[in-house]
């Protein structure tokens, strides 16, 4: 009797689900992965020598071949299942850490929320996490997850939308298991136990690490090292893909940061990015992206150093003649140069990298690769932590092994170009500029500032100038929305850092005009805000220093270039008026007379006139009156020289509140001790003794008519 069509459909679907379930490895706890592939690691083959033991030169590494279709892999699954013993639940196992009933979320539970979690008996031992059908004797083992030092545990976290249970995720070599419990305390207990078991495991070593140890032990024998490279293609340049990282990276399904995949997948993507460098028309942005990935994911820095050492070894081993003749291969050396100026490799990786560079220098002493190797070795000795990755201009300079030109604006001296590298600090730049301008013996302290309009911020002495330039580039790109955007307006400048000491300034040196322009720039920003009469006197001295004696034919600058903008008028707070009783207010509103309206208008007019006069008095009598006062003061300065006018300007400005300062420990760049400065009011002339030069300069103002 033929079966109905619906029954045939049910049998076929059940058979298909059974095959699919077996293919995904029911013998080992499987998780959220969409496909089950062979382990993406390198196979370590150690031929046993006659004398026994592992010889340092008998290690060979090959990459695995991708598995075939699902139908061809069923036999492999059956072999995997046969490795799991079919014994039941052990009665008294001393290695048992914790056991209990838990819910296990099915494979792809997030993508298939209609599948409910399965309840099973879980046993955690020192070696594995086992799942059984029940807690009784002779229960069938449903799966096992071997725990190593690379396994990771996340959670517990509550999955409100999916199951409403508290879940703990265990990530293994090929699969991840999500254990669920309705109680938070139970989930936390399993999470702590799993982390303790994983932490007690001995660290695993990849085959690449074993090869690095062999190379380090055979570093005195060049033939032995060459033989290791010859027998292990994983150490040499390759044009194929990399299926697994070279260093042990933890398993995990959660991304280490926004926009990133798990670490092992990111390591494989980094290698693909390295291979894309060979044909990139603009390698700068690609290099910067790789460096930014390593900055966001510190665990990948040593991995990238090893990948670059592999790709710079050549197809026939280090250094490899094809690598020296291929222009595209220089991209790996350029990126390795940028890496060495940005990050510090770990101990074992650093030793292998230095040996690789030394072998390159010895094999090709007069080649361009040897120049890169020498540059990288020097950079590794000076590199420390960077806050930001190199800018595009710095990457271009490092690719040519050149220094980067940095422009620093100096008041009164124009713009100065300073050659820096990736390790130059703000203190070094400030000291160089102070020496150029002849300010080394000055009593004043100078510092490097980042400035944009009225915004400015002092840079600590240990700040890397390359990081500051990268920040300027990022700000420009954010404001313009383009990578090739114009200057954002931020610039570096050298300026006074601390109290002003105008005593003993030479009229022929650079310090007097430098301080003069610096003080004028500060006054234009309104820091500090001096009184109005002092502002007019400073403006007259400014005109005398720029144009000498007054002449009607001299074109006068605008007033805003001599004086700071006037402060907005301060409005007096409204005075609360006594509120009359309701009956009086009602009567006053009802009995309106023309005399009452006239008195109200007169009262409002007198109040407005009083506020206008007060605001005009605070503004110094208006723009015309201020200009007339400045010109009058300039006329009275006839005969005063330029240097004398600048010295008088500085002496008068030094008496303003804010040019005095109190010291605090933050970091100044010019002097050896670390100081910064906080403005404080200057004492009045009667409270403290002034220096003779200050007193004489003040006695000259205002001069006699």
UniProtKB/TrEMBL annotation:
GO cellular component, one term: cytoskeleton
Leader sequence segment: 1-18
Residues of the PH domain: 95-199
Keyword set, alphabetical order: Methylation, Phosphoprotein, Signal
Key word Signal present: yes
Gene3D superfamilies in UniProt: 1.20.80.10, MyTH4 domain (1.25.40.530), Phosphatidylinositol 3-kinase Catalytic Subunit, Chain A, domain 1 (3.10.20.90), Pleckstrin-homology domain (PH domain)/Phosphotyrosine-binding domain (PTB) (2.30.29.30)
Occurrences of domain MyTH4 (ranges): 237-399
Bias (Acidic residues) ranges: 29-41
Composition bias type Basic residues, residue spans: 598-608
Sequence ranges of Polar residues compositional bias: 687-696
PROSITE patterns documented for this protein: FERM_3, MYTH4, PH_DOMAIN
Domain FERM residue range list: 404-705
Region (Disordered): 28-62, 552-585, 598-625, 680-705
UniProt keyword annotation of Phosphoprotein present: yes
Protein name (Swiss-Prot/TrEMBL): Pleckstrin homology domain-containing family H member 3
């Amino acid at each position: 009797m033929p079966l109905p069509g619906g029954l045939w459909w049910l049998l076929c679907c059940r058979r298909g689900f059974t095959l699919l379930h077996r293919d995904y490895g029911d013998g080992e706890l499987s998780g959220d992965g969409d496909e089950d592939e062979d382990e993406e690691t390198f196979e370590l083959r150690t031929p046993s020598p006659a004398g026994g033991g592992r010889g340092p030169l008998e290690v060979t590494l090959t990459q695995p071949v991708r598995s075939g279709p699902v139908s061809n892999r069923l036999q492999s699954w059956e072999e995997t299942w046969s490795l799991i013993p079919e014994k039941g639940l052990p009665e008294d196992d001393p290695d048992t850490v914790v056991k209990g009933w838990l819910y296990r979320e099915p494979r792809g539970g997030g993508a298939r929320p209609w599948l409910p979690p399965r309840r099973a008996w879980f046993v955690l031992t020192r070696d594995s996490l086992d799942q059984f059908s029940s807690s009784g004797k002779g229960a069938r083992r449903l799966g096992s997850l071997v725990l190593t030092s690379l396994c990771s545990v996340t959670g517990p976290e509550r999955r409100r939308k999916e199951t409403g249970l508290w879940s703990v995720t265990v990530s293994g070599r090929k699969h991840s298991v999500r254990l669920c419990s309705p109680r938070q305390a139970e989930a936390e207990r399993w999470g702590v136990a799993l982390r303790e078991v994983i932490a007690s495991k001995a660290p695993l070593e990849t085959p690449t690490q074993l090869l690095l140890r062999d190379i380090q032990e055979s570093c005195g024998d060049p033939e032995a090292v060459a033989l290791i490279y010859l027998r292990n293609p994983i150490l040499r340049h390759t044009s194929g893909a990399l299926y697994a990282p070279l260093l042990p990276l933890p398993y995990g399904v959660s991304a280490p940061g926004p926009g990133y995949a798990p670490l092992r997948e990111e390591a494989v993507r980094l290698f693909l990015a390295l291979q894309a460098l060979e044909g990139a028309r603009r390698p700068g942005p690609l290099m910067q992206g790789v460096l930014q990935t390593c900055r966001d994911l510190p665990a990948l820095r040593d991995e990238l150093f090893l990948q670059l050492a592999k790709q710079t070894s050549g197809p026939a081993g280090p250094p490899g003649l094809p690598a020296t003749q291929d222009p595209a291969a220089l991209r790996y050396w350029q990126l390795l140069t940028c890496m060495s100026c940005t990050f510090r490799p770990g101990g074992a990786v650093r030793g292998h990298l230095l040996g690789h560079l030394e072998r390159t220098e010895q094999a090709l002493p007069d080649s361009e690769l040897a120049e890169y190797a020498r540059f990288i070795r020097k950079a590794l000795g000076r590199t420390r932590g960077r806050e930001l990755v190199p800018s595009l201009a710095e990457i271009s300079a490092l690719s040519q092994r050149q220094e980067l030109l940095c422009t620093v604006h100096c008041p009164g001296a124009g713009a100065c170009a300073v050659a820096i590298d990736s390790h130059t600090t703000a203190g070094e730049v400030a000291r160089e500029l102070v020496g150029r301008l002849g300010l080394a013996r000055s009593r004043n302290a100078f510092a490097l500032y980042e400035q944009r309009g009225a915004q400015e911020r002092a840079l600590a002495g240990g700040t890397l100038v390359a990081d500051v330039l990268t920040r300027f580039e990022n700000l420009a790109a954010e404001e313009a929305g383009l990578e090739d955007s114009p200057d954002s307006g931020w610039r570096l400048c050298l300026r006074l850092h601390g109290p002003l000491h105008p005593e003993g300034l030479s009229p022929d040196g650079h310090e007097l005009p430098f301080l003069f322009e610096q003080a004028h720039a500060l006054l234009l920003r309104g820091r500090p805000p001096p009184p109005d009469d002092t502002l007019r006197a400073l403006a007259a001295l400014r005109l005398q220093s720029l144009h000498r004696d007054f002449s009607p034919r001299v074109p006068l600058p605008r007033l805003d270039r001599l004086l700071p903008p006037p402060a907005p008028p301060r409005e007096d707070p409204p005075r609360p008026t006594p509120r009359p009783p309701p009956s009086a207010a009602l009567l006053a509103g009802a009995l309106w007379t023309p005399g009452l309206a006239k008195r109200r208008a007169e009262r409002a007019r007198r109040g407005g006139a009083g506020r206008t006069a007060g605001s005009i008095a605070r503004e110094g009598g208006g723009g015309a009156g201020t200009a007339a006062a400045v010109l009058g003061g300039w006329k009275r300065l006839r005969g005063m020289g330029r240097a004398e006018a600048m010295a008088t300007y500085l002496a008068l400005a030094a008496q303003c509140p804010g040019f005095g300062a109190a010291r605090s420990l933050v970091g100044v760049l010019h002097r050896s001790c670390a100081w910064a400065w906080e403005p404080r009011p200057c004492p009045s002339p009667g409270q403290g003794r002034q220096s003779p030069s200050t007193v004489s300069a003040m006695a000259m103002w205002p001069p006699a008519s």
